[in-house]
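Could someone model pyridoxal-5'-phosphate with this protein?
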Amino acid sequence: VPIRHLYDPEEQLSLWCQQDSDVIPLHVAENVLLFENHLKPLFERTCTTELADTKYQPNYGRDDLNGAVGAFLSKSLGWDPALTHREISSFAGTRSAVDVMGRALFEGYADRPGGSSVLMPSPRWHGFAWTYEARLGGSIVDIPLTAEGGFRLTLKAIQDAYGAADPKPRALVLTQPENPLGVHYDRAFLESAAQWVLEKTDMDLVSDEIYAHCVVPGASGPAFTSALALPQAVEHPDRVHVVWGFAKDFGLSGFRVGVLASRSKKLHDVVRPVTSAGFSPMTSSNAWFVRKLFHTRGVAEGLMKEVLPRELKQSFDAASDALEEQRIPRFGGTHSAQFFWLDLRQWLDRRIPTVHCPNDPEEDFGDPREQALERYLRCGAKVSLLRGQRLAASDIGFFRLCYTAVDRGTVVQAIRRVGTALRAIPR
Ligand SMILES: Cc1ncc(COP(=O)(O)O)c(C=O)c1O
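Reply:
Sure, complex below.
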């Protein structure tokens, strides 16, 4: 994969947006909902440091931090038995956890075989391609979810994609809640998928649950079930793994802290030396900040159980009402994560006005109509969205809008701008 394709499209767009403060950046998956009233006072109150915070620490995270994260996630995500510090390894961001996990899968760990591909529903977060394709030279076998099929993942679709793949994929990698669809799976589906994967194939099950606490209260959808909370995960401790991080639920994307949670001792024995060699390390400054969240008992739990759902719902409702008011169609199933998946297909074949777009970072990529619409909204309406083909969507004309990236008043303003701009496109 040429290096220029490794750029993060979200990062590129964010850099571009910095040149024009009028542009509202809703392309990036960030969460500002907790900072001002909750995290800022917490960090200011607990801002003390010790010599140990400045020195070498285990590159996969100190035992006390891994233990605190394990206890916290076990409680909030229903992992029973709870995971201890030996079953959590921390890295520089969830992308690093994805990466070390991918490497372990492809190289094989302990008595588990190696591999060169993974099975994954699409649309999906573009960063998976950095690990599985660009860095490891393998491939992602897509299970395309389509508008026609209601973007629903079924066991049959997983089985069909697995059956057609040669060689067989090394793991089924799920993201739940899904980025960009904003849905998670019901327990019965997850149990049947896990059972089939673990009993009928040699695959591992990897679940990226970085948005796990972002479940919108009152939106119709199933209760969230973590892969590590399934009975099959306890029966097969070496084959079910979760990655999670502080970037989305807590909105601490700049801290770069992500974890690999697995009951497989063999897996941790393999991934920990990778970080000790200096790659993807957990730094003491990251650890210092994150420990503040666990400084006072119950603070992290309260933020995730009470504050985040309340804030998320207000932002979800405000964005949802604005989309309705502007008659902007969207995938209707959204009930979790931080996104709306806008369905702008009806504008693709209209005469999208050409707009002046200085220093545009968007190279020619994919469908030119989708690209023109993205550019028109960004440079004309001054709202930046992430277009579907960047997220490996098979349907053209879908756009991801992150409704937690900026304050809710600004999100509503952005949606109104998009509505006005869409209405101005001649047929
Ligand atoms: C599904 C998913 N996994 C992983 C990541 C990367 O997380 P981090 O910023 O902690 O590396 C993202 C970021 O957008 C994501 O959406």
